[in-house]
Amino acid sequence: MKNTKSILIIGLIVILIGAGATYLFGFERRLENTSAVTPVNEIAKDDPQAMDIDTQTSPYQNYVNNISSGGPPKDGIPPVESPVYITIEEAGQRMMPYDKVFVYEGNTDTFIYPQNILVWHEIVNAVIDGEQLSVTYCPLTGSTICYIGDVADYDDNTYGTSGTLLNSNLVMYDRASDSYIPQILGIGINGALEGISLQTKPIVWANWEDAIETYPEAKVLSTETGFLRDYDHDPYGTYQPEDNKSYYANDGVMFPLMNRHEGLYSDKKVVVGVKFGDAVIAVDPAKVREEKIVPFGIGSEQAVALWDESLKTVRVFNRTLEEEQLNFVATTNGYKDQYDRQWSYQGVSADELTLNHITYFDVMWFAWYAYYPETEVIK
Amino acid sequence: MIKNGLFNLFEHKKATSIGITVYILYFGLYQWSIGYLNIFLDASFWKWIPLPNWSALVTKRVSTFLFEGIGILEFFGTFKLVIAPMNILFGLILADLVFINVACVIYMMNLPKQCRIDTNFNGLLGILPSFLTGFACCAPSFLIPLASLLGGATAVISQALQWLFPISVLILLYGAYSGLKKVSTVKIT
Question: What is the mean pLDDT of residues A85-105?
Fold first, then answer.
């Protein structure tokens, strides 16, 4: 009995010491990681010329001041670094027709990213058509944006989850410079990327059944992500229409906002946020669905929001092509311009002209307004 | 004092057996509460499925006191346990402390009435906070209904939840210490 007692006591002590050491070791590593990156204020101290920019006059300091911790540490919500793709038949075993997916149309292949996988990872760093891309998704703001890895002096950049939030929205960090980039803003707010906008590529929301009907050969992100997550369960609820207890449907925001809207729409109403330079416009997708074609001006450009009947989503294009403004009318499988040219929903004409896209993405109204209270609204 | 207390506990069969039962139940409940133990009726009787990159994940944190799983253990055709060594370590620490607290209570309750000194065991309260540790990560299901009532303040609650694990440990440690102190003073013969 005495031996048993001694073993148990020693075991308990070892366990306690082991736990303490491991946690402290982890903490040390975190400190090392943190100190490897110079905080914005330290940069200012080292470089007197930078002081005004970083601590006094930076227009981005207000964003930095409003960042809050989301709970997990850096990359605690782990991005998918080496995406594995499977066929629609393979993926179909775990997907329901109404499941939300994000569709990226590459030059040669189309890629489908299921929302129920992205909700656990928020970022997929992938190389598509030889280009480093990051598919980013914030479940709290319902925004999916595809960013290009080439930015400023950095090539093939990848992004991670910082574990922090701004306006309840994912704050990414750039792996090369450790600059923080709020996902909806798409601009670095500190460090080397401060003030630099990331370039985007269009990625659209769709239901699984519409996506696979439109793109039967698409490649689908598999659950082999390198991490163990319950991909059949979304911690925030579901996108099923009858699930009104879901985070995605009820009113209520979980984290502080810089600006609170005053009731034009409900918190979680999805709008299409459109950005061109400093100009921002929110387009109500219901209007586009009804009218099919909604032309509007944004900044110095003339844009058009078109309803894609196949994916049941909104796409936004610059409608100026070769210095001429195009006017569209809806057809059964796309659009026609004033020259009787047929255009696909993807903005490609029969004679292979391509419309340029303007940065746009679906986003919950509260989040769009929190960043852009000056936004115009097309409703 | 602690040595004597533990000695007395382990000599008492009823306290030890109930303590061990609670130990096992508590450990399972803890793993379930953090979302790492689940019931699946299609599970194998015994199967170990490691992740290819498991060694890189051993000390990778998901949240303040939660770590990445490195593989799945299916057992008894019913359970799937995500094996995260650090979470298991933390679960064992809590279960050890719960064992001592519970065994002390049983021990004291089995003393003759005239020998009972103080049956107030506040340390058992420490069991509760640890079950909420799992909420502190990215499983905000119970925070969602609160969001519409509390708005941005939900974030404060989310942050506070991360400290339930150390709070649990501290309360249980206090309970174990005071329990052993009491147990060490009286021996059931």
Answer: 96
- Please state, in angstroms and rounded to a whole number, the distance separating the CA atoms of residues A245 and A252: 11
The whole-angstrom distance between residue B94's C-alpha and the CA centroid of its chain comes to 4
ipTM of the complex: 0.80
Q: 3-state DSSP call for residue B170?
A: helix
pLDDT at B142 over 70: no
Q: What residues are paired with A340 via a beta bridge?
A: none
* Cα→Cα distances B62→A24, A222, A371, B88, Å: 16, 21, 28, 14
Find out if CATH 2.40.128 is the number for domain A262-379: no
- Hey, which bits of chain B come out as E strands? 37-39, 46-50, 61-63, 66-67, 71-75, 79-83
Given the structure tokens 């509007």, which residue do they identify?
A296
Question: Which residues of chain A are at the B interface, by a Cβ-Cβ cutoff of 8 Å?
Answer: 1-2, 4-5, 8-9, 12, 15-16, 18-19, 22, 25-26, 68-73, 76-78, 120, 226-228, 230, 235-237, 245-247, 250-257
Question: Domain ranges in chain B?
Answer: 2-185
Using CA atoms, how far apart are residues A112 and A131, in angstroms rounded to an integer?
17
